Amino acid sequence: MSPLQIKHGSSKHSAYDLRDPNAEVLETHTLAAVVDNESGVLARVIGLFSGRGYNIDSLTVAEIDHTGHLSRITIVTTGTPQVIVQIKAQLERMVVVHEVHDLTAEGPSVQRELALFKVAGKGEHRIEALRLAEIFRANVVDSTLESFVFEMTGTPEKVDAFAELMRPLGLIEIARTGVAAVARGR
After folding, report:
1. Fewer CB within 10 Å of terminal CB in the chain, N or C?
2. CA atoms within 13 A on the CB side of 164
3. What PROSITE patterns has UniProt attached to this entry (predicted)?
4. DSSP code of 34?
5. What is the DSSP code (8-state) at residue 170?
6. C-alpha–C-alpha distance, residues 181 and 31, integer Å
7. C-alpha distances in Å from residue 44, one per residue of 37, 48, 51, 77
8. HEC letters along 130-141
9. pLDDT above 80 (res 84)
10. Of 106, 128, 148, which residue is a domain's last?
11. Both 61 and 42 in a single domain?
12. Are residues 69 and 135 in the same domain?
């Protein structure tokens, strides 16, 4: 038995585990809010987050009902379970918000993001970038003698993975739309 096991009576403790066992775990949630499509609504929703010190990891907004003047705001945010409940409750209290869904808590959902990657390179780097793009099913949407622009859709994790592989090959710019999400099934 190691000295650490003797001291704590168990092998579950580690001298390198510096996490506070009493600290709450942060969770990432995807929220979808149907709101009035009118001037200032997005600013009010963002103000709710910034005024309370909540971070927005991803934000997408688009009109979903032209005749009803409704838009859908999809927000990815991170916080403790209590903070997520509080965010949802505060969104639901806003007059311009018609409904709020916590897609993470409600069950399986489909999440996708569109990204454009500008990659500059010649020779072997250029060939390797094209090979990786094929593996990731990224499309070439622009090409010059010195660069490519790839278009890819997928989960945020897939977009992140592609970006990491492209960095050493000459990634010079990324444009991302943010997460679009919808619940699976009925």
Report:
1. C
2. 6
3. ACT
4. E
5. T
6. 9
7. 12, 6, 10, 16
8. HHHHHHCCCEEE
9. yes
10. 106
11. yes
12. no
d(CA 96, CA 39): 11
Look up tokens 């979808």; give the residue.
32
The reply to whether 78 and 128 lie within a common domain is no
Q: Say if residue 8's pLDDT is above 70.
A: no
What pLDDT score was predicted for residue 185? 84
- CA nearest neighbour of 78 among 87, 66, 91: 87
* Tokens describing residue 3: 């000295």
Q: Does 20 fall in a domain?
A: no
Asked if 113 and 179 count as a contact pair (C-beta separation under 8 A), the reply is yes
69-84 CB burial, b ≥16 within 10 A, e <16 = ebbbbbbbbebeeebb
85: in domain? yes
Cα(32)–Cα(72) distance, integer angstroms: 7
Range of the domain at 158: 109-183
- For residues 156 and 151, give the distance between their C-alpha atoms in angstroms, rounded to a whole number: 14
- Of all residues in the chain, the percent with pLDDT exceeding 90 is 81
Owner of token pair 């990491």: 164
* Residue 4: pLDDT band with limits 50, 70, 90: very low
Question: What is Dmax (Cα atoms) for the chain?
Answer: 72
- Using CB atoms within 10 Å of the CB of residue 57, give its burial: 0 to 12 exposed, 13 to 18 middle, 19+ buried: middle
